[in-house]
Amino acid sequence: MRRSKAPELVVGLDVGTTKICAVVGEPRPGGGLDIVGVGNAPSRGLRRGIVVNIDSTVEAIKQAVAEAEQMAGVEVAGVYAGVAGGHVRSLNSRGVVAISGREREVSTLDVERAIDAARAINVPQDREIIHVLPQTFMVDDADGVREPVGMSGVRLEVECHIVTAAVTSVQNVVRSVNRAGLAVQDVVLEPIASAEAVLFPDEKELGVVLIDIGGGTTDMALFRDGAVWHTAVLPLGGDHITNDVAVGLRTPMADAEALKKRYGCALTSMVPAEETVDVPSVGGRKPRELSRQVLSEIIQPRMEEIFTLVAQGLAKAGFQDAATAGVVVTGGSSIMEGVPELAEAVFDMPVRRGVPAEVGGLAEVVRSPIYATGVGLALYGARRQTTGVTPLDSNDGAILTRLGRRLAGWFGEIF
Questions:
Q1: Domain of residue 274, residue span
Q2: Is there a single domain that holds both residue 158 and residue 205?
Q3: Is residue 396 part of a domain?
Q4: Number of domains, the chain
Q5: Beta bridge partners of 152
Protein backbone atom coordinates (compact mmCIF):
# COMPACT_ATOMS: atom_id res chain seq x y z
CA MET A 1 0.00 0.00 0.00
CA ARG A 2 1.57 3.28 -1.11
CA ARG A 3 1.37 6.43 0.95
CA SER A 4 0.59 9.76 -0.67
CA LYS A 5 3.24 11.55 -2.72
CA ALA A 6 5.88 13.09 -0.49
CA PRO A 7 7.33 16.19 -2.18
CA GLU A 8 10.31 16.43 0.18
CA LEU A 9 11.79 13.12 -0.94
CA VAL A 10 14.70 13.24 -3.39
CA VAL A 11 15.40 10.52 -5.94
CA GLY A 12 18.73 9.89 -7.62
CA LEU A 13 18.52 7.93 -10.87
CA ASP A 14 21.81 6.51 -12.11
CA VAL A 15 21.20 5.58 -15.75
CA GLY A 16 24.21 3.34 -16.27
CA THR A 17 25.46 1.04 -19.00
CA THR A 18 25.16 -2.15 -16.94
CA LYS A 19 22.50 -1.23 -14.39
CA ILE A 20 19.91 1.41 -13.69
CA CYS A 21 19.73 2.31 -10.05
CA ALA A 22 17.15 4.44 -8.21
CA VAL A 23 17.90 5.73 -4.71
CA VAL A 24 15.12 7.41 -2.70
CA GLY A 25 16.33 9.67 0.10
CA GLU A 26 14.63 11.71 2.80
CA PRO A 27 16.53 14.91 3.69
CA ARG A 28 17.09 15.41 7.43
CA PRO A 29 16.09 18.75 8.97
CA GLY A 30 19.66 19.61 10.03
CA GLY A 31 21.22 18.46 6.76
CA GLY A 32 22.20 15.00 5.61
CA LEU A 33 20.10 12.30 4.04
CA ASP A 34 18.33 9.10 5.11
CA ILE A 35 18.09 6.44 2.40
CA VAL A 36 14.57 4.97 2.42
CA GLY A 37 14.44 2.99 -0.83
CA VAL A 38 16.77 1.42 -3.38
CA GLY A 39 15.93 -0.23 -6.71
CA ASN A 40 18.07 -1.88 -9.37
CA ALA A 41 17.41 -3.16 -12.87
CA PRO A 42 19.80 -4.52 -15.49
CA SER A 43 20.34 -1.94 -18.22
CA ARG A 44 20.28 -3.05 -21.84
CA GLY A 45 19.53 0.16 -23.68
CA LEU A 46 22.88 1.94 -23.24
CA ARG A 47 26.33 1.63 -24.74
CA ARG A 48 29.28 3.46 -23.22
CA GLY A 49 26.97 5.67 -21.17
CA ILE A 50 24.85 6.76 -24.18
CA VAL A 51 21.22 5.70 -24.76
CA VAL A 52 20.97 3.52 -27.89
CA ASN A 53 17.58 1.93 -27.25
CA ILE A 54 14.93 4.11 -25.61
CA ASP A 55 12.34 1.35 -25.08
CA SER A 56 14.75 -0.93 -23.19
CA THR A 57 15.97 2.02 -21.12
CA VAL A 58 12.39 3.08 -20.25
CA GLU A 59 11.52 -0.46 -19.11
CA ALA A 60 14.62 -0.67 -16.92
CA ILE A 61 13.94 2.78 -15.39
CA LYS A 62 10.34 1.74 -14.59
CA GLN A 63 11.55 -1.49 -13.00
CA ALA A 64 14.25 0.19 -10.85
CA VAL A 65 11.95 3.01 -9.72
CA ALA A 66 9.07 0.61 -8.94
CA GLU A 67 11.42 -1.46 -6.76
CA ALA A 68 12.64 1.66 -4.91
CA GLU A 69 9.05 2.94 -4.49
CA GLN A 70 7.96 -0.37 -3.05
CA MET A 71 10.82 -0.39 -0.54
CA ALA A 72 10.17 3.22 0.48
CA GLY A 73 6.36 2.91 0.46
CA VAL A 74 5.98 6.11 -1.57
CA GLU A 75 5.26 7.22 -5.09
CA VAL A 76 8.02 9.06 -6.94
CA ALA A 77 7.31 12.00 -9.26
CA GLY A 78 10.68 13.53 -10.15
CA VAL A 79 14.32 12.43 -10.26
CA TYR A 80 17.85 13.81 -10.50
CA ALA A 81 19.35 11.97 -13.46
CA GLY A 82 23.03 11.30 -14.04
CA VAL A 83 24.72 11.78 -17.41
CA ALA A 84 28.04 10.43 -18.65
CA GLY A 85 29.48 9.28 -21.96
CA GLY A 86 32.35 10.15 -24.24
CA HIS A 87 30.50 13.24 -25.52
CA VAL A 88 31.06 15.15 -22.24
CA ARG A 89 33.64 17.95 -22.49
CA SER A 90 34.83 20.40 -19.86
CA LEU A 91 36.94 23.54 -19.64
CA ASN A 92 37.87 26.27 -17.19
CA SER A 93 36.71 29.79 -17.95
CA ARG A 94 37.11 33.22 -16.36
CA GLY A 95 34.62 36.07 -16.03
CA VAL A 96 35.30 39.68 -14.98
CA VAL A 97 32.79 42.42 -14.09
CA ALA A 98 32.85 45.84 -12.50
CA ILE A 99 31.26 45.86 -9.05
CA SER A 100 28.05 47.91 -9.26
CA GLY A 101 26.32 49.85 -6.48
CA ARG A 102 27.27 53.02 -4.64
CA GLU A 103 29.14 51.37 -1.81
CA ARG A 104 31.22 49.25 -4.21
CA GLU A 105 30.11 46.27 -2.17
CA VAL A 106 29.84 42.86 -3.87
CA SER A 107 26.20 41.74 -4.09
CA THR A 108 24.77 38.37 -5.15
CA LEU A 109 23.79 40.10 -8.41
CA ASP A 110 27.46 40.92 -9.09
CA VAL A 111 28.39 37.30 -8.47
CA GLU A 112 25.70 36.16 -10.91
CA ARG A 113 26.91 38.67 -13.51
CA ALA A 114 30.51 37.45 -13.12
CA ILE A 115 29.43 33.81 -13.52
CA ASP A 116 27.35 34.80 -16.59
CA ALA A 117 30.46 36.44 -18.04
CA ALA A 118 32.42 33.20 -17.45
CA ARG A 119 29.74 31.09 -19.12
CA ALA A 120 29.80 33.28 -22.24
CA ILE A 121 31.91 30.81 -24.19
CA ASN A 122 31.50 29.65 -27.76
CA VAL A 123 29.37 26.51 -27.50
CA PRO A 124 28.54 24.71 -30.77
CA GLN A 125 24.82 24.35 -31.54
CA ASP A 126 24.83 20.62 -30.91
CA ARG A 127 26.13 21.03 -27.35
CA GLU A 128 24.68 22.52 -24.17
CA ILE A 129 26.17 23.69 -20.88
CA ILE A 130 25.05 21.40 -18.05
CA HIS A 131 27.17 22.83 -15.21
CA VAL A 132 28.87 26.10 -14.38
CA LEU A 133 30.82 25.44 -11.18
CA PRO A 134 32.49 28.45 -9.52
CA GLN A 135 36.00 27.61 -8.30
CA THR A 136 37.42 30.78 -6.82
CA PHE A 137 36.74 34.51 -6.81
CA MET A 138 39.07 37.50 -6.92
CA VAL A 139 38.10 40.93 -5.59
CA ASP A 140 40.58 43.52 -6.93
CA ASP A 141 43.94 42.05 -5.83
CA ALA A 142 42.60 39.64 -3.21
CA ASP A 143 42.54 36.18 -4.75
CA GLY A 144 41.38 32.83 -3.37
CA VAL A 145 38.11 34.37 -2.13
CA ARG A 146 35.41 31.74 -1.48
CA GLU A 147 32.48 33.99 -0.55
CA PRO A 148 32.86 37.46 -2.11
CA VAL A 149 29.40 38.81 -1.16
CA GLY A 150 29.77 41.79 1.20
CA MET A 151 33.41 42.56 0.29
CA SER A 152 34.34 45.99 -1.04
CA GLY A 153 36.13 46.44 -4.34
CA VAL A 154 36.02 47.73 -7.90
CA ARG A 155 36.46 44.56 -9.94
CA LEU A 156 35.16 41.04 -9.39
CA GLU A 157 36.69 38.08 -11.18
CA VAL A 158 35.55 34.45 -11.06
CA GLU A 159 37.06 31.22 -12.31
CA CYS A 160 34.53 28.55 -13.28
CA HIS A 161 34.58 24.96 -14.43
CA ILE A 162 32.15 24.54 -17.31
CA VAL A 163 30.82 21.14 -18.38
CA THR A 164 29.16 20.72 -21.77
CA ALA A 165 27.41 17.69 -23.25
CA ALA A 166 25.84 16.71 -26.56
CA VAL A 167 22.26 18.04 -26.61
CA THR A 168 20.87 14.86 -28.18
CA SER A 169 22.55 12.53 -25.67
CA VAL A 170 21.16 14.53 -22.74
CA GLN A 171 17.72 14.71 -24.40
CA ASN A 172 17.65 10.93 -24.87
CA VAL A 173 18.24 10.41 -21.15
CA VAL A 174 15.55 13.01 -20.29
CA ARG A 175 13.14 11.47 -22.81
CA SER A 176 13.66 7.97 -21.41
CA VAL A 177 12.93 9.21 -17.88
CA ASN A 178 9.85 11.16 -19.09
CA ARG A 179 8.48 8.12 -20.91
CA ALA A 180 8.83 6.17 -17.69
CA GLY A 181 6.35 8.69 -16.23
CA LEU A 182 8.84 10.81 -14.26
CA ALA A 183 9.98 14.42 -14.41
CA VAL A 184 13.69 15.28 -14.54
CA GLN A 185 14.46 17.89 -11.89
CA ASP A 186 18.02 18.25 -13.14
CA VAL A 187 20.72 16.41 -15.05
CA VAL A 188 24.01 16.02 -13.20
CA LEU A 189 27.42 14.92 -14.44
CA GLU A 190 28.00 11.51 -12.84
CA PRO A 191 31.51 12.02 -11.40
CA ILE A 192 30.30 15.21 -9.67
CA ALA A 193 27.43 13.20 -8.15
CA SER A 194 29.71 10.32 -7.09
CA ALA A 195 32.00 12.84 -5.39
CA GLU A 196 29.07 14.03 -3.24
CA ALA A 197 28.75 10.51 -1.86
CA VAL A 198 32.30 9.24 -1.41
CA LEU A 199 34.70 12.17 -0.88
CA PHE A 200 35.46 13.84 2.45
CA PRO A 201 35.66 17.66 2.70
CA ASP A 202 39.34 17.59 3.73
CA GLU A 203 40.20 15.53 0.61
CA LYS A 204 38.44 18.06 -1.62
CA GLU A 205 40.43 20.83 0.04
CA LEU A 206 43.86 19.19 -0.31
CA GLY A 207 43.30 17.91 -3.83
CA VAL A 208 41.91 14.51 -4.80
CA VAL A 209 41.17 12.59 -8.00
CA LEU A 210 37.92 10.64 -8.06
CA ILE A 211 37.82 7.76 -10.57
CA ASP A 212 34.40 6.11 -11.00
CA ILE A 213 34.86 2.93 -13.05
CA GLY A 214 31.44 1.88 -14.30
CA GLY A 215 30.35 -0.68 -16.86
CA GLY A 216 30.58 1.40 -20.03
CA THR A 217 32.49 4.50 -18.94
CA THR A 218 35.15 5.63 -16.50
CA ASP A 219 34.32 9.07 -15.07
CA MET A 220 36.87 11.22 -13.33
CA ALA A 221 36.87 14.51 -11.44
CA LEU A 222 39.70 16.46 -9.83
CA PHE A 223 38.87 18.52 -6.74
CA ARG A 224 41.17 21.15 -5.26
CA ASP A 225 40.47 23.91 -2.72
CA GLY A 226 36.96 22.46 -2.34
CA ALA A 227 36.03 22.98 -6.02
CA VAL A 228 36.01 21.00 -9.28
CA TRP A 229 38.97 21.80 -11.54
CA HIS A 230 38.89 19.03 -14.10
CA THR A 231 36.36 16.42 -15.25
CA ALA A 232 36.46 13.83 -18.01
CA VAL A 233 34.55 10.74 -19.16
CA LEU A 234 36.42 7.89 -20.87
CA PRO A 235 34.40 5.43 -22.98
CA LEU A 236 36.10 2.48 -21.25
CA GLY A 237 34.88 0.40 -18.32
CA GLY A 238 34.11 -2.98 -16.80
CA ASP A 239 32.29 -4.21 -19.92
CA HIS A 240 35.55 -3.94 -21.87
CA ILE A 241 37.28 -6.12 -19.27
CA THR A 242 34.48 -8.71 -19.57
CA ASN A 243 34.85 -8.62 -23.34
CA ASP A 244 38.62 -9.14 -23.04
CA VAL A 245 38.04 -12.15 -20.77
CA ALA A 246 35.42 -13.61 -23.15
CA VAL A 247 37.76 -13.29 -26.14
CA GLY A 248 40.93 -14.30 -24.30
CA LEU A 249 39.47 -17.40 -22.64
CA ARG A 250 36.96 -18.24 -25.43
CA THR A 251 34.06 -18.27 -23.03
CA PRO A 252 30.48 -16.82 -23.33
CA MET A 253 29.98 -13.20 -22.17
CA ALA A 254 27.76 -14.13 -19.21
CA ASP A 255 30.36 -16.63 -17.95
CA ALA A 256 33.17 -14.12 -18.54
CA GLU A 257 31.28 -11.59 -16.36
CA ALA A 258 30.81 -14.21 -13.61
CA LEU A 259 34.50 -15.22 -13.75
CA LYS A 260 35.58 -11.57 -13.58
CA LYS A 261 33.37 -10.85 -10.57
CA ARG A 262 34.24 -13.99 -8.66
CA TYR A 263 37.91 -14.61 -9.44
CA GLY A 264 39.11 -11.42 -11.17
CA CYS A 265 42.16 -9.61 -9.83
CA ALA A 266 43.67 -6.44 -11.27
CA LEU A 267 47.20 -7.24 -10.12
CA THR A 268 48.67 -10.58 -11.23
CA SER A 269 51.35 -10.52 -8.50
CA MET A 270 48.58 -10.81 -5.85
CA VAL A 271 47.29 -14.15 -7.23
CA PRO A 272 48.78 -17.37 -5.79
CA ALA A 273 50.35 -19.45 -8.60
CA GLU A 274 48.56 -22.69 -7.66
CA GLU A 275 44.97 -21.30 -7.78
CA THR A 276 42.84 -22.56 -10.69
CA VAL A 277 39.41 -21.70 -12.09
CA ASP A 278 36.94 -23.66 -14.21
CA VAL A 279 36.29 -21.87 -17.50
CA PRO A 280 33.07 -22.77 -19.40
CA SER A 281 33.57 -23.24 -23.17
CA VAL A 282 31.41 -22.21 -26.11
CA GLY A 283 29.56 -24.53 -28.48
CA GLY A 284 28.89 -27.29 -25.92
CA ARG A 285 32.56 -28.16 -25.42
CA LYS A 286 33.76 -29.33 -22.03
CA PRO A 287 34.81 -26.70 -19.45
CA ARG A 288 38.57 -26.24 -19.01
CA GLU A 289 40.65 -25.70 -15.92
CA LEU A 290 42.97 -22.70 -16.10
CA SER A 291 45.31 -20.93 -13.71
CA ARG A 292 43.71 -17.91 -12.04
CA GLN A 293 46.84 -15.98 -12.99
CA VAL A 294 45.89 -16.31 -16.68
CA LEU A 295 42.59 -14.53 -15.91
CA SER A 296 44.45 -11.79 -14.04
CA GLU A 297 46.93 -11.38 -16.92
CA ILE A 298 43.96 -10.52 -19.19
CA ILE A 299 42.38 -8.08 -16.71
CA GLN A 300 45.50 -6.19 -15.60
CA PRO A 301 46.46 -4.56 -18.96
CA ARG A 302 42.93 -3.15 -19.48
CA MET A 303 42.77 -1.77 -15.92
CA GLU A 304 46.24 -0.31 -16.37
CA GLU A 305 45.10 1.32 -19.61
CA ILE A 306 42.15 2.98 -17.86
CA PHE A 307 44.33 4.42 -15.07
CA THR A 308 47.06 5.48 -17.53
CA LEU A 309 44.50 7.36 -19.68
CA VAL A 310 43.22 9.18 -16.58
CA ALA A 311 46.80 10.09 -15.59
CA GLN A 312 47.54 11.32 -19.12
CA GLY A 313 44.37 13.42 -19.13
CA LEU A 314 45.39 15.06 -15.84
CA ALA A 315 48.91 15.74 -17.12
CA LYS A 316 47.56 17.22 -20.35
CA ALA A 317 45.32 19.58 -18.37
CA GLY A 318 48.33 20.55 -16.22
CA PHE A 319 47.11 18.93 -13.00
CA GLN A 320 49.54 16.00 -12.59
CA ASP A 321 50.67 17.17 -9.12
CA ALA A 322 47.37 18.63 -7.93
CA ALA A 323 46.04 15.57 -6.07
CA THR A 324 47.85 15.89 -2.74
CA ALA A 325 45.34 13.69 -0.91
CA GLY A 326 45.66 10.92 -3.51
CA VAL A 327 43.11 9.00 -5.52
CA VAL A 328 39.67 7.56 -4.67
CA VAL A 329 38.36 4.72 -6.88
CA THR A 330 34.67 3.85 -6.88
CA GLY A 331 32.03 2.35 -9.20
CA GLY A 332 31.23 -1.33 -9.72
CA SER A 333 34.56 -2.29 -11.32
CA SER A 334 36.52 -0.94 -8.33
CA ILE A 335 35.20 -3.81 -6.16
CA MET A 336 37.60 -6.18 -7.91
CA GLU A 337 40.57 -7.34 -5.87
CA GLY A 338 43.80 -5.48 -6.58
CA VAL A 339 42.26 -2.33 -8.10
CA PRO A 340 43.54 0.14 -5.43
CA GLU A 341 46.96 -1.55 -5.46
CA LEU A 342 47.23 -1.26 -9.26
CA ALA A 343 46.10 2.39 -9.14
CA GLU A 344 48.78 3.09 -6.51
CA ALA A 345 51.42 1.65 -8.85
CA VAL A 346 50.19 3.77 -11.80
CA PHE A 347 49.65 7.09 -9.97
CA ASP A 348 52.37 6.67 -7.33
CA MET A 349 49.89 8.06 -4.78
CA PRO A 350 47.80 6.66 -1.94
CA VAL A 351 44.54 5.13 -3.23
CA ARG A 352 41.37 4.08 -1.40
CA ARG A 353 38.05 2.59 -2.44
CA GLY A 354 35.17 5.03 -2.08
CA VAL A 355 31.81 3.93 -0.64
CA PRO A 356 28.81 6.17 0.23
CA ALA A 357 29.47 7.10 3.86
CA GLU A 358 27.61 10.22 4.96
CA VAL A 359 24.07 8.82 4.81
CA GLY A 360 21.60 7.36 7.30
CA GLY A 361 18.54 5.13 6.95
CA LEU A 362 19.34 2.07 4.83
CA ALA A 363 23.03 3.00 4.87
CA GLU A 364 24.12 -0.66 4.99
CA VAL A 365 22.21 -1.47 1.78
CA VAL A 366 24.05 1.20 -0.22
CA ARG A 367 27.48 0.77 1.37
CA SER A 368 29.07 -0.40 -1.87
CA PRO A 369 30.93 1.40 -4.68
CA ILE A 370 28.14 0.45 -7.14
CA TYR A 371 25.77 2.88 -5.39
CA ALA A 372 28.18 5.85 -5.37
CA THR A 373 26.47 7.68 -8.26
CA GLY A 374 22.88 6.90 -7.18
CA VAL A 375 23.44 8.06 -3.60
CA GLY A 376 25.45 11.05 -4.84
CA LEU A 377 22.58 12.17 -7.08
CA ALA A 378 20.16 11.98 -4.14
CA LEU A 379 22.60 13.98 -1.94
CA TYR A 380 23.00 16.55 -4.74
CA GLY A 381 19.21 16.91 -4.95
CA ALA A 382 18.83 17.15 -1.17
CA ARG A 383 21.42 19.90 -0.92
CA ARG A 384 19.81 21.73 -3.78
CA GLN A 385 16.38 21.59 -2.12
CA THR A 386 17.62 22.86 1.25
CA THR A 387 19.63 25.79 -0.12
CA GLY A 388 17.36 26.57 -3.03
CA VAL A 389 20.39 26.51 -5.35
CA THR A 390 22.47 23.79 -6.92
CA PRO A 391 25.10 22.49 -4.48
CA LEU A 392 28.28 23.27 -6.39
CA ASP A 393 26.50 25.09 -9.08
CA SER A 394 25.15 28.46 -8.10
CA ASN A 395 24.01 29.56 -11.53
CA ASP A 396 22.96 26.65 -13.66
CA GLY A 397 19.85 28.56 -14.65
CA ALA A 398 20.09 29.09 -18.38
CA ILE A 399 16.40 29.67 -19.01
CA LEU A 400 16.60 28.39 -22.57
CA THR A 401 18.26 25.18 -21.44
CA ARG A 402 15.62 24.73 -18.74
CA LEU A 403 12.86 25.47 -21.27
CA GLY A 404 14.46 23.05 -23.73
CA ARG A 405 14.46 20.36 -21.06
CA ARG A 406 10.86 21.08 -20.19
CA LEU A 407 9.87 20.94 -23.87
CA ALA A 408 11.80 17.69 -24.23
CA GLY A 409 9.78 16.48 -21.25
CA TRP A 410 6.46 17.47 -22.84
CA PHE A 411 7.36 15.97 -26.21
CA GLY A 412 8.42 12.78 -24.41
CA GLU A 413 4.98 12.60 -22.85
CA ILE A 414 3.07 13.48 -26.05
CA PHE A 415 4.84 11.09 -28.40
A1: 201-354
A2: no
A3: no
A4: 2
A5: 105
CA dist., res. 168 & res. 87, Å (int)? 10
268 close to 255: Cβ distance less than 8 angstroms: no
Whether 234 and 342 map to the same domain: the answer is: yes
Cα–Cα dist 394/231, whole Å: 18
Residues 265 and 345 grouped into a single domain: yes
Tell me how far apart the alpha carbons of residues 311 and 319 are, in angstroms, rounded to a whole number: 9
pLDDT (tens digit per residue) in 191-240: 999 998 999 999 999 999 999 998 888 999 999 999 999 999 998 999 99
Q: How far is it, in rounded angstroms, from Cα 226 to Cα 161? A: 13
* Residues in Cβ contact with 33 at an 8 Å cutoff, skipping those fewer than 6 apart: 10, 25, 26, 27, 358, 359, 360, 361, 378, 379, 382
What is the model's pTM?
A: 0.87
**Helix 190-198, helix 372-387: angle, nearest 10:** 90
Strand partners, 163: 90, 131
pLDDT per residue over 333-368, tens digit each?
Answer: 899 999 999 999 999 999 999 998 878 887 788 888
